[in-house]
Write a structure and sequence with these properties.
By secondary structure, the chain is α/β, with parallel strands linked by helices. The chain has 21 helices and 14 strands. The protein starts with a helix and ends in a 5-residue tail after the last helix. This is 3-deoxy-D-manno-octulosonic acid transferase.
Length: 453
């Protein structure tokens, strides 16, 4: 009864969802693409059966899905992949993963008719939800149809657990109906189990298995040899953090002329001027907004999209997608976005794999264990706020031996935590194979099943 009430609500909410998509499409045109797919209406060419369906809602999940899909193809060549997403950036990233015979559509809105239409059309052999995406109607429909549905690279922080517990009448049946869950950490596992999830293993984070783009790192190494100053980057920044950094730089005298004779040790302004500062926003729809913010604060701005290779300017803006390895390769130090506002932090694994030391703010609950392991390994530092982070970054660039030691520790830390992709793919394929085997009736069922004669 409660699920039916939820289904009625999501059905009635569809006009609001359409309105929201139209608004989002103004800034991100990708949201206007194939809108009807979200409500279970598909092009005739979008069909097939036996899919390994992977749902990666947004950019981060799509990147993790790419690692898992590559390993699935290694272990099971030719496996047909059906990719679904919820955001425009997720779909754009997911398109890079497609091979001949694969298919990509939007995630169905969690209303009974849209979910039923999706499952009727594609009849997946198994469904894989990435990280956090557990929807009540979708999980219930898969359970009813006998479609194995698993949660891979699963994480659940304390805030999300509290929210799920407040809606326990929806969350608990959804989590308990999953066929299997593979958690990133022991803490994630305990929280997921408390909601009724069947945690089959703690496999670590798939993102440790990512290999940085070698061409981008080579380009970064070449550019660094031409740069007159060390680079400090605010990486994957979120709303509010860019203003924090720019305000700190202004307070430290970044916009004031610095006499050449001024003692560099005594002058914070001189130390700030001796660094090239770079900002790489997390979300592409904010690129123009951040460029305008940089200029409104009195700084010059050089955009990657306009200049190609970064040009000398007060602030560089990394306004391109898919080039984080290049940016981390250029940076001597990275300030971790999402950690200087109460947002839980962005993932620091890619920075570690690129050998870039990280300074993170106080908020890292989304990747709590990775953050603590990184600190313990000597690959990162923590600062209580942006001002202390900038000061710590300046100390690091002035101490090459310390910076190089952190860079080496970062790569060791990243290498030591690999293996999640192999374990997850093997477990997933075992479930898919078991689900495809003909079911043998038990003796009790044989006795009670009516005869067809």
């Amino acid at each position: 009864m409660l699920l039916r009430l939820y289904g009625a609500f999501t059905t009635l909410a569809q006009p609001l969802v359409r309105r929201k998509l139209r608004r989002r499409a103004v800034a991100e045109p990708g949201y206007a693409h194939a809108v009807e797919e979200r409500f279970g209406v598909y092009d005739e060419s979008a069909s097939g059966t036996g899919w390994c369906w992977v749902h990666a809602v947004s950019l981060g999940e799509a990147r993790a899905a790419g690692i898992l899909i590559a390993e699935l193809r290694r272990q099971y060549p030719g496996i047909p992949i059906l990719l679904t997403h919820g955001t425009a950036t997720g779909r754009e990233e997911g398109a890079k993963l497609l091979e001949e015979g694969d298919l990509q559509v939007w995630q169905p809105w969690d209303a009974p008719s849209a979910v039923a239409s999706f499952l009727d059309r594609f009849q997946p052999r198994i469904g894989v939800l990435m990280e956090t995406e557990v929807w009540p109607e979708l999980t219930a429909a898969c359970a009813e149809r006998g479609i194995p549905l698993v949660l891979a690279n699963a994480r659940l922080n304390e805030n999300s657990l509290a929210s799920a517990e407040r809606l326990g009448w929806l969350a608990r049946p959804a989590y308990s109906s999953l066929t299997a869950v593979w958690a990133q950490t022991e803490a994630d596992s305990h929280r997921l189990v408390s909601l009724g999830a069947k945690v089959e293993g703690v496999y670590g984070n798939l993102k440790f298995d990512a290999t940085p783009d070698a061409r981008q790192l080579a380009t970064a190494a070449r550019l660094r040899g031409q740069l007159p100053r060390p680079v400090v980057m605010l990486a994957s920044s979120r709303d509010g953090e860019e203003a924090q950094l720019l305000d700190v730089l202004k307070r430290f005298g970044a916009l004031s002329p610095v006499p050449p004779e001024q003692d560099a040790v005594q002058s914070i302004a001189r130390r700030v001027h001796d660094v090239q500062w770079m900002i790489v926003p997390r979300h592409p729809q904010r690129f123009d907004e951040v460029a305008a913010l940089i200029e409104s604060k009195g700084f010059a701005c050089a955009r990657r999209s306009a200049a190609g290779a970064p040009a000398e300017s007060e602030i560089w803006l990394g306004d391109s997608l898919g080039e984080m390895a290049l940016y981390y390769g250029l940076a001597d130090v990275a300030l971790l976005g999402g950690s200087f506002e109460p947002l839980g932090g962005q993932n620091l694994i890619e920075a570690a794999a690129c050998g870039c030391p990280v300074i993170m703010g106080p908020s890292t609950y989304n990747f709590a264990e990775a953050a603590e392991l990184s600190l313990a390994a000597g690959a990162s530092q923590r600062a209580p706020d942006m001002e202390h982070a900038v000061t710590a970054a300046l100390k690091l660039v002035e101490n090459p031996e310390r910076r190089d030691a952190m860079a080496e520790a970062a790569q060791v830390f990243a290498s030591a935590n690999r293996g999640a992709a192999q374990r997850t793919a093997a477990a997933l394929l075992a479930i898919a194979e078991a689900a495809s085997e003909p079911r043998v009736a038990t003796r009790a069922e044989e006795r009670t099943e009516p005869s067809l004669e």
